[in-house]
Amino acid sequence: MILKKKMTGVIAPAVLAVATGAGIAGTASADEVKFGALYPLSGSLALLGEESFRGLELAVEEVNANGGVQGQQIVLAGGDAVDQNQAIGEARRLISREDVEAIFGTYSSSRSIAASQVSELAGVPYFELGAVAHEITNRDFDNIYRTNPTARHMARTHVDMIVDAIAPELGRDPADLRIGIIHEDSNYGSSVASFQEVFGEEAGLNIVVNEAYPASTVDMSSIVLRLQERDVDIVLQTSYQDDSILFLRQANERDFEPSAIIGGGGGYSMVPTAEAVGFDVIEGVLNADFTQYAVNADFATGVNDFVEAYREKYGSDPRSGHSLNNYVGAKVILEALDEGNGFSPEAIAEALSAVDVPAGETAVGYGVKFAENGQNDAAFMMGMQWRDGALVTVYPPEAAVADLEF
Amino acid sequence: MDLVFTNIVNGLMLGALYAIVSVGLTLVFGIVKVINFAHGEFLMVSMFLVYLVTTFFGVHPYFSLILVLPAAFVMGMLVQRLLIEPLQNSDEHIMIFATVGLSIALINLMLLIFGPDILNTPSSGLRQPVNIGSGMFLTGQLNILICAIAVVGGIHLFLTRTQLGRSIRATGQNRSAAQLMGINVSWIYMVTFGIGAACVGLAAVLIAPLYPTSPEVGQYFVLLSFVVVVMGGLGSITGALVASMIIGLVDAFAGFYLGANVKDLVVFGIFLLVLIFRPQGLFGGARNLSHVS
């Protein structure tokens, strides 16, 4: 009921967006099955939106080369989710005009939340391969599935890494470490921070600071000062890029040297961040994020094949781990659908409920097993560390290519 | 005591940052009576220019002033001549929409050209920390403080002591009367907008070595600039400087003692109090509100 009310408010812009919608594929013939591919392909999120789409594209090509799903070749109908309104419009177009069986997406959490409301109402399955917001799979939707790890998994990795790896490396009892949580104050940072608090308390960690700040801040000296005054040993920052740079710079300039700084995805994973703060400053800084390429290939089986296929098709190295995670998610889903009987939502639900891929058998390392709400509960994030100008996987040990070191 | 001193230093440096960004805005606001919502984007475009000049010629970022200052001046004049002037006699809301539109257009233009990634102007030693007792600042921050005070003083002298400055003030006080006195109002507006934009150009030169440049960076500075301009008194340049320092200090102290989540509450709470009890701003006289009547 609440959903329906929300929907009426968005129909007007959606109609507009349909009129300007991009991405058209041929009509599906008898031996073809059509899926939607909804990503931000223009605008400010275009770079990683496209990178995500490439993973899906590679998975589809691979599955098609092996005979498709249920003997049918897969056709992708593209949609450009520039913003929430257009995500809704494009989802409607894909469902009503392109008549897709299901939609893959989306990279951006806000676009995913908006578009999946449309697909849920239409009873069309939505496969999320890359958006991290916790709520995406916690709205009591029947037809949403998500393969990637979420904000909750990020916080889980943060806390596990402190208890299992950082505290032993420092020779300290985890309960003696003084933890400071700082995060940008939108949905993303706040939700990761709230899980950090929950998991941290469960693990008996001593959280002495928990502060939100707007991502558009131009000065974090008062936050640095507070962390210094409270003798924080480990800083957890969940942030975008500019605020990651600002914090690392100001901490360094104020000689604030906690035992460990652990970032959450976003800014901490990007080379331009390291260039901005200096490779010597970011050396040793930790991060939790989607599986990247500096990972143990015995655990992330097939990661090197993926990189090779990517290079062959796009003529360059992958620009981030987004393509890899989308590739694995799409491939697992498509292979499961191949075992199913038709593409009705019920058949898809049945096929996906049978999925049980253990960790260590995918190119991202984590396994796939869908819970009741559609979330892949076998997913987890990797712990990484900046070492000699590169981000390498250090946690969990079976995925690590180097030991965590300070 | 040490902590108080540390926070005073932090606050003054932050205040200087707001001041240098706000000076141009308050000038345009006071004289042309336009709320320039594209002000932050002037800063952003200028920062991109600083980056391009610095990396292309391999010079110290401050040298880019030679090119950025005239470029910003011309950009300001063109915006006034081509966008604001045709709308000068229409409703104020129309001008607001025009500058908001310009702001969105500039952000997307830069997204198109440079993409969403950040660019780093070399800091060229300007991020060198200087410690005085428990206080710490960067040399680049000190330069911002010095320039902010110098620019405010310079513009004050210019407005009060030169013929052009007097014409600008006359136009600001009463456009029709100034026109009747033989002042070319259209030209004065262009020059004023140009000077306002040049101030932003200077701010960009000072800020670019300290902050990453991205299409969104203007948005980070602009909200507090509006607060500073209104709080100082519309069009009062000295007022903007004082208000910047107040906001900077409040920001630093509230951020440290109350927490980052609460500091905006305090900053905007004080802003509201000023609006309620002194709606003309701290330094605003009735003169500066002449466009209302």
Structure overview:
- The complex is a heterodimer of chains A (406) and B (293).
- Chain A folds into 2 domains: 2-149 and 302-353, Rossmann fold; 152-289 and 382-399, 3-Layer(aba) Sandwich (Rossmann fold).
- Chain A is 43% helix and 16% strand.
- Chain A has 13 helices and 12 strands.
- In chain A, helix 2 (46-65) runs parallel beside helix 12 (322-339), helix 3 packs parallel to helix 4 (109-122) and helix 12 crosses helix 13 (345-353).
- Chain B has helices at residues 2-31, 39-57, 65-84, 92-114, 139-161, 163-173, 175-180, 185-207, 217-232, 237-257, 260-277; strands spanning 129-132, 135-138.
- In chain B, helix 1 (2-31) crosses helix 9 (217-232) and helix 3 packs across helix 8.
- A two-stranded antiparallel sheet of chain B has the order 1-2.
- In chain B, a hairpin with a 2-residue loop joins strand 1 (129-132) and strand 2 (135-138).
- Chain B is an all-alpha fold and 293 residues long.
- Helix content of chain B is 72%, strand content 3%.
- The A-B interface holds A 43-47, 182, 185, 211-214, 216-223, 225-226, 229, 241-242, 245-246, 249, 253-254, 272, 275-276 and B 3, 6-7, 10, 14, 17, 111, 115-118, 120, 127, 129, 136, 138, 211-212, 214-217, 219-221, 223, 251-252, 254-256, 259-261, 263-264.
Roughly what fraction of the amino acids of chain A lie in strands?
Answer: 15-25%
Poorly predicted ranges of chain B: 288-293
Put simply, the count of helices of chain B is 11
Distance between the termini of chain A: 53 Å
Q: Given the helix and strand composition of chain B, which structural class is it?
A: mainly alpha
Structural shape of chain A: globular
Helical residues, percent of chain A: 40-55%
Number of strands of chain A: 12
Q: CATH class of the largest domain in chain A, please?
A: Alpha Beta
Q: How many domain units of chain A?
A: 2
Largest interface: A-B, 32 and 36 residues
- Beta-strand fraction estimate of chain B: under 5%
What is the count of β-strands of chain B?
A: 2
SS element count, helices of chain A: 13
